[in-house]
Amino acid sequence: MTVSIADLVPGASESGGDLSAATLREMFRFMLLARVLDERMWLLNRAGKAPFVISCQGHEAAQVGAAFALTRGKDFTLPYYRGLATVLVMGMTPTEVMLGLFARATDPSSGGRQMPAHYSHRRLKIITQSSPVGTQIAHAAGVGLAERIKGGDAVVWTSFGEGTTSQGDFHEGINLAAVQQLPVIFQCENNEYAISVPQKQQMAVTSVADRGPAYGIPGISVDGTDLLSVYEVTRRAVERARRGDGSTLIEARVVRLTAHSSDDNDRTYRSQRELKSMRLSDPLARFAAYLHDQDMLSEAEERDLRAEIGAEVDAATEAAEQAPMPDPETLHNYVYAL
């Protein structure tokens, strides 16, 4: 099922539904923070200071909208490698993100052991993925089952790309969650490319959401560049999960504004026309225009916010770069077979 915010809440696209102006500005701040932080990572990579970058640019509305529908400190998130905006909303700081990029000892994700963008934070209930894509989907079902056994009411949210839905983990995780009616939300952030492979070569269906009913759960496709639509769809999925009605598969249709990663050249498989036209769907520009139109954010306030965030990212970069490297004596820590 494909929905818009107007389908869900009449007038919500104009009013922001139940969200206050202060909350909408906070959502925009997280979107902008993720974008500026992401852009800084690319500069560090090109300067030879960061080994690898995989971007969230174009995914910010899908991630911030979904994360604001969750309860921070209570619900579990298992984001995939593009989940920068997700983890920022859930409580990770720019400095903590940069500690992972620089592989420093105090990196909360892994103490500098994982590759960048394998986000994890025990206190914030952010659970890492592994390099083989899709592993977090099965883990999410397991966390949901554990929560059911414990008698809690926390919701589990996980994200992945549409290419990952070709993996067995996708089938196994969703099937278990559906059969057991587990409180898990599966968000596919569909940017139409699995690295360089277009969606039409990945699946015969036109929408990942079409797969939901095959497992006996709702499948909802939403414009992932529309922050308010994603928030509302996820809010309803959270309510459904918390009251014991089971899982939901959400397809957030997004744009990937960069190459797959810092090791990729998307100009070899995307035309100049496509690269130029996708900028028209930039979710950050779209939400900024919305806030301006609603008189919730002035041009001057946006400039001040950009300066504030720029300074925050500068400070995070400097702090992480100066942080100590892991002690070589700890090399074998957490290694269970040598």
Automatic annotation (TrEMBL):
> What organism is listed for this UniProt entry?
Candidatus Chloroploca mongolica
Q: InterPro entries in the record, alphabetically? A: Alpha-ketoacid_DH_E1_comp, DH_E1, THDP-binding
Kindly report, in one word, the top-level EC class recorded for this enzyme: oxidoreductase
Catalytic activity annotated for this protein? N(6)-[(R)-lipoyl]-L-lysyl-[protein] + 3-methyl-2-oxobutanoate + H(+) = N(6)-[(R)-S(8)-2-methylpropanoyldihydrolipoyl]-L-lysyl-[protein] + CO2
Q: Does the keyword Coiled coil apply?
A: no
Purpose of the protein: The branched-chain alpha-keto dehydrogenase complex catalyzes the overall conversion of alpha-keto acids to acyl-CoA and CO(2). It contains multiple copies of three enzymatic components: branched-chain alpha-keto acid decarboxylase (E1), lipoamide acyltransferase (E2) and lipoamide dehydrogenase (E3).
Which cofactors must be present for this protein to function? Answer: thiamine diphosphate
Q: Which family does it belong to?
A: Belongs to the BCKDHA family.
Key words of the record: Oxidoreductase, Thiamine pyrophosphate
| Taxonomic lineage from the root | Bacteria, Bacillati, Chloroflexota, Chloroflexia, Chloroflexales
Which residues are in the Dehydrogenase E1 component domain?
Answer: 29-329
Protein name from the UniProt record: 2-oxoisovalerate dehydrogenase subunit alpha
EC numbers for this chain: 1.2.4.4
**Which domain of life, per UniProt?**
Bacteria
